[in-house]
Design brief:
Helices cover about 65% and strands about 0% of the residues. It is an all-alpha fold and about 300 residues long.
């Protein structure tokens, strides 16, 4: 007789610790394995918590910037084209240079502005700003008065005098009204007595306000020269004219020139002042009698 088929006997469960497999533990295992395979990390006990931790945006900003966040915010505001100093009205003689044919393209504009930054008013204004900033930090009213008077006397033409003094006064007035501080109030009250408002030219005004607010010199100089060069390029874009992309190419090409000039200006004494851009100075003089004009200088 045929034997009846055996009935499958259920296997006894092995003795195991009760473990719940959840989606979180699976994801943890996958991430651990992936990180280990890709990066060769042998211990992931500290890696996984870092990846899984969510940090709020304000905390990240505070950690990265710290006390410099406020200084950066103020510099970006004060030296923005939107700050009401009227910089768009002036070309620093560039309008005559375009009329005379000295500047007619992006390349010639770059060369003209490179010379102005390196060996002309860009470098000189940087030196004046640096010395005004240091005088305010040191509380040396005599040094501040002397550098302010020298900066006003260093301007080569009547229109450039109008340009830098008007922007300087506007900068002081707006910063004082919207960004006042106890230190700035004290500095300005002393300036009222010892410095004529006509001598508070633009670089002196920026150095004075930044120094009173405790903003470091190096970023102040970088922001100032960037603003000056950007305004010149904006004038050139309207005069030549240039497209937006070509204008940005000129600004990008001058990055190293501005950085090098900042370094020189920070180390220069007042005896190192001097200009070798005679053609640019002549342009600011000739602009006064130019027949048709878009700009005030």
């Amino acid at each position: 007789m045929r034997k009846p088929p055996r009935t499958a006997t259920p296997m006894k469960p092995m003795h195991m610790k009760a473990t719940r497999i959840t989606s979180t533990s699976i994801m943890h295992t996958i991430m651990t394995t992936t990180i280990t395979m890709i990066m060769g990390i042998t211990s992931t006990t500290t890696v996984i918590p870092m990846l899984m931790t969510t940090t709020s945006a304000p905390a990240v900003g505070s950690a990265l910037m710290g006390a410099d966040a406020g200084a950066l915010y103020r510099l970006m505001t004060w030296l923005s084209p939107a700050f009401p100093v009227g910089g768009f009205s002036y070309s620093s003689g560039l309008e005559w240079a375009v009329e005379a044919g000295d500047v007619s393209s992006a390349e010639t504009l770059r060369g003209w502005l490179s010379a102005m930054v390196t060996d002309g008013s860009g470098f000189c204004d940087g030196v004046f700003l640096a010395h005004a900033h240091r005088a305010v930090e040191a509380g040396d009213d005599g040094a501040l008065r002397d550098v302010a008077e020298l900066a006003a006397a260093f301007v080569p033409s009547r229109e450039r005098q109008l340009e830098t003094s008007t922007q300087g006064r506007a900068f002081i007035q707006t910063a004082h009204a919207a960004w006042s501080s106890a230190e700035l109030e004290q500095v300005l009250s002393r300036c009222e007595v010892m410095i004529d408002r006509a001598t508070l030219v633009y670089p002196i005004a920026v150095g004075l306000v930044a120094g009173a607010h405790g903003i470091a010199l190096a970023p102040t100089l970088h922001a100032f020269l960037h603003a000056v060069v950007s305004n010149w390029i904006s004038a050139g874009a309207r005069l030549i004219p240039l497209g937006q992309t070509d204008s940005q190419r000129v600004l990008a090409a001058l990055e190293g020139v501005v950085a090098a000039t900042v370094g020189r200006a920070m180390e220069a004494s007042l005896d190192d002042l001097g200009s070798a851009t005679f053609r640019a100075d002549l342009a600011s003089l000739r602009h006064e009698t130019q027949y048709t004009r878009l700009f005030r200088s």
